[in-house]
Amino acid sequence: MNRRAWLQASMMATTGLMLGGCATSTGQLSARGTGDLGVIIGRADGTLTLVETSERTVLGTVEGLGDLSHASVVFSRDGLYAYVFGRDGGLTKVNILTARIEKRVMQAGNSIGGAISADGTLVAAQNYKPGGVKVFNAHTLELVADIPATYGDGQLSRVVGLVDLPGQRFAYSLFDADAIWVVDCSDLKAVQTQKFEQVGRQPYDALVTPNGRHYIAGLFGEDGLAMVDLWQPQPKVQRILSGYGKGEAPLPVYKMPHLRGWAVAGRHAYLPAIGRHEVLVVDTETWREVGRIPVAGQPVFVMARPDGRQVWVNFAVPDYHRVQVIDTQTRQIVKTLEPGKAVLHMEFTPRGETVWISSRDVDRVSVVDTASFETLSALKVKAPSGIFMTSRAARMGF
Question: pLDDT under 50 in the chain at which residues?
Fold first, then answer.
């Protein structure tokens, strides 16, 4: 079946399911689009909670997704399918309108995330065990490429920081090999890999700038970050923010910060400082530090409201019951919230009028108005962690 025929058949089948309704644990889903939908990871019981943002309600749940103690989600271009990457190596394709698992494969022994290609045809999983990246057909979840992260004398590195790039390309970091790889999957019979070695000690997570130009990896073993300018004919690794600790004794790191939810407001980026109670402010034209903002604890996620006016920060233990809001005009903390113990993730609605905050230890997702800071809703979800809105489908690196 060619792509056009597959799309036509899929649309007809989905339309029939939507018009007829689909039973879930909470009732019926009527005909609707996916633009205001999202999913919440149930960390404790391997479930996916389906939500809609307009009325702030739970639409249903999907069970049987395995170990979601560390899980992430990407969406198909049309927002119909959620691809869930589980800690146990499971890759699950979920139809969020019918609340059903379309396909599930066990592709690795230990996996922590993935990405979808810009054209929506390929899904890639980053793996700890065995170390490497596996690439799948997004429609069938058929394995189409296996790229072991081999280094040294045949050792396999854990892979982190996997992001999509323009075209059918992906970039990722090799934690154990101190390397960054960029792979081109446009010809699956001859996948091309560009390798950058000795980028810095232990790249632990990474991001790509919204225009797809710069891939930036945080370094756990060093004071600084590694950056590759992918627009250059012969890209090289550049070290940025070297020595931002300035020789001070590092604090114990209670939870690794995440760069993927980084904050860009105007020409400035806001990044979590490893093991420090600070958010770094970086000029994205020069990639130099231009300020730092003291915060309540060790930042984990530093995320910008879609309009760039605010930056929201959550923290590692012992401060993981707090969320702080930074005004990007003044670079001052304007609000400290305590939505519940063990805040693990935050997600803005597409235009940023609300932010959804998961509090694992109180089984709650709070929906907060970003103007008044009032809590508008509190949804009961067992041990919630990651929150992912379908608006991610249109964003690079998400």
Answer: 1-28, 246-247
